[in-house]
Amino acid sequence: MALDIIGAGFGRTGTESMKRALEILGYGPCYHMYEVIPNKDRFEMWQGIYDGTVTPDWDAVFDGFRATVDWPAARYWRELAAHFPDTKILLTYRDAESWYASMEKTILTFLRDPEKTEGMAPRLRNTVFEGDVSDKDHVIAVYNRNVADVQSAFGPERLLTYQLGSGWEPLCRFLDVDIPEVPYPSGNESASFHQKDQELSKARKA
């Protein structure tokens, strides 16, 4: 099974809702950080990929999955798009200020924690954000640059820039599928983010 959809959007752009939406539409299972955190082998593999000590076999990494969104895979959208040339590219997006506000309550708390010297947090900090997660302007600039890079890399026949909150219509039109008779998913609010991370991390260590 090859990937059908590659998510190029940063975390906190509605990626968990998009994961669930794609699975409702039949593009599941969909890879997400939530598939990585509780799984020791995947967690260690992605650390090696980010460190450059593991050369990924993308077919094996995504074996059994039809789509991927969110980090850690989103950092590698260029490599994945080249390896899976027939895939659609999905850029989940929200206004940069809104995105940053959500990041501050969630992911940035991990990336800024000096005690987190292992795992995915320091790797996201050092690779995606170039080692600087304290400067708001820099963090937003990295986000905006990723959006611009993705949008300049693909034409409209392959890329959908999906605005958070847009519902089913643009996604289903892009994928040429019928709109489901269920509401577009919502979830992963900032208030529940940390609890879910703790539960998934405990599952990996059990």
From TrEMBL:
It holds the Pfam family Sulfotransfer_4. Residues 194-206 have a biased composition (Basic and acidic residues). Residues 186-206 are annotated as: Disordered. Gene3D superfamilies: P-loop containing nucleotide triphosphate hydrolases. It comes from the Bacteria. InterPro entries: P-loop_NTPase (IPR027417), Sulfotransfer_4 (IPR040632). This is Sulfotransferase family protein. It comes from Marivita geojedonensis.
